[in-house]
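A.,

Following up on our hallway conversation. Structure tokens first:
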């Protein structure tokens, strides 16, 4: 959960809440003979495809290093302290392929889980395994072996959604079980919220509460339009502002997870910023939408295509680019080697450039090769394709053994180390220089929207 300046929390919540009066009211029947308007037939068809997800994880317990000394414990008669605790998570999921037993949910529902189970609408409990997960889009794919009686939801085309369309959210709020709420699409293309790396959210006023992460957002035909993910809230409960990942984006991730077990993102090799009205005037153009190229990486796919600093990207594969986030979302969801066609404005001319996206060149090392205190962690440079690229300088923690001293000290995957021993860190080489010859390490770490210090000793 991250807080805005107004202390409004962006809470991973999953969606859907207890049935209550919807914000978007349905018409009333005008006589006893007129059938009452109802969503019941559609809900009865779609409810069996939504499951409750339960996950358990063993988390290392932070404790004073002296308590690990047997002599200290015996001398002061200190009982043995637990080294880990169990954490449980509740969420929701959507069956998207009944034949293969595939269930779509959120990454944060099953992150670091040791055990995952799902409960079907008929009361059956099944053990599930994690096929793959993508933290950047907050999508995870589960699979169950027992596919008997499974019902999958058909996909809608989320690109055809309009503000004002009726939608229904189904999920497991507060662990109560299957619940349904209705509302409308309040907004489209929401980004810049800092919830995920790639953001293109559907905003809805359908009542949503904690426990519905990974639940279904469906249209009135019962087709899946989105995966419920987060809420905007002061209290952690529903305030009528919820967000869902569009199914077109989730389906792209689903296909890669089922095929590779991970997302193989393409890389264009550019830094971009939004085209503001002031920049548009400075470039002498009338268009107010697009992404301005600020830097082209040598040897990148962008350089091979002929892209230059100062170019304004207007379209990608025929899709209009409204902002820098649009460009990053489209390219970041492409597979390595996929062809990309760019329509760009260069001066007074418009040009069409083509290239193939490349695999990210992520420099990654085992932490203990940098310093013994990093044992159990994997560290990497921030590269294009990551949400921090162009915004932060530092070293990203790509993995941490949950039983390592680094994990016990509080280091987590996704953390960005921006300082080490009070020295700014730009990359892995800079981190190596900052910690060379040191005993304990004082790290300044950015996580989400906040920053704090961690001491590795």
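Then the amino acids I'd put at each of the 457 positions:
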């Amino acid at each position: 959960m991250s807080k805005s300046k107004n202390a409004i929390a962006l809470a991973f919540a999953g969606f859907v809440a207890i049935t209550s009066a919807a914000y978007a009211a349905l018409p009333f029947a005008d006589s006893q003979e007129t059938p009452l308007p109802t969503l019941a037939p559609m809900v009865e068809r779609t409810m069996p495809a939504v499951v409750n997800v339960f996950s358990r994880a063993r988390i290392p317990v932070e404790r004073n290093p002296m308590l690990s000394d047997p002599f200290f414990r015996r001398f002061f008669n200190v009982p043995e302290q637990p080294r880990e605790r169990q954490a449980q998570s509740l969420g929701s999921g959507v069956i998207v392929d009944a034949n293969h037993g595939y269930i779509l949910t959120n990454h944060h529902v099953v992150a670091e889980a040791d055990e995952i189970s799902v409960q079907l609408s008929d009361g059956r409990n099944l053990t599930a395994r994690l096929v793959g997960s993508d933290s950047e889009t907050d999508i995870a794919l589960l699979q169950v072996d027992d596919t008997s009686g499974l019902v999958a939801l058909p996909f809608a085309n989320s690109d055809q959604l309009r503000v004002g369309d009726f939608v229904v959210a189904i999920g497991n709020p507060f662990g109560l079980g299957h619940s349904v709420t209705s509302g409308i699409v309040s907004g489209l293309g929401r980004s810049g919220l800092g919830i995920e790396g790639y953001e293109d959210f559907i905003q809805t006023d359908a009542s949503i509460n904690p426990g519905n992460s990974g639940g279904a957002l469906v249209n009135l035909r019962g087709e899946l339009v989105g995966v419920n993910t987060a809420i905007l809230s002061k209290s952690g409960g529903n305030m009528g502002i919820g967000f869902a990942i569009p199914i077109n984006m989730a389906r792209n991730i689903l296909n890669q997870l089922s095929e590779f077990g991970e997302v193989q993102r393409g890389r264009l090799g550019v830094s971009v910023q939004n085209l503001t009205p002031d920049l548009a005037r400075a470039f002498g153009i009338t268009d107010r939408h697009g992404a301005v190229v600020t830097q082209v990486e040598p040897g990148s796919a962008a350089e091979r295509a002929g892209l230059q600093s100062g170019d304004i990207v207007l379209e990608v594969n025929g899709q209009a680019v409204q902002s820098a986030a649009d460009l990053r979302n489209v390219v970041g969801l492409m597979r390595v080697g996929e062809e990309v066609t760019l329509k760009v404005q260069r001066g007074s001319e418009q040009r069409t450039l083509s290239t193939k996206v490349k695999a990210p060149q992520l420099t990654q090392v085992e932490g203990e090769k940098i310093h013994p205190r990093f044992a159990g962690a994997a560290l990497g440079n921030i590269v294009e394709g990551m949400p921090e690229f162009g915004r932060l300088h530092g070293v990203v923690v790509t993995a941490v053994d949950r039983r390592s001293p680094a994990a016990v000290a509080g280091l987590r995957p996704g953390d960005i180390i921006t300082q080490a021993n009070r020295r700014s860190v730009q990359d892995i080489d800079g981190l190596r220089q900052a910690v060379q010859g040191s005993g304990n390490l004082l790290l300044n770490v950015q996580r989400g929207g906040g920053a704090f210090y961690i001491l590795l000793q």
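Residues 364-456 form a domain with the Pdz3 Domain fold (CATH 2.30.42.10). Curious whether your intuition agrees with the design.

B.
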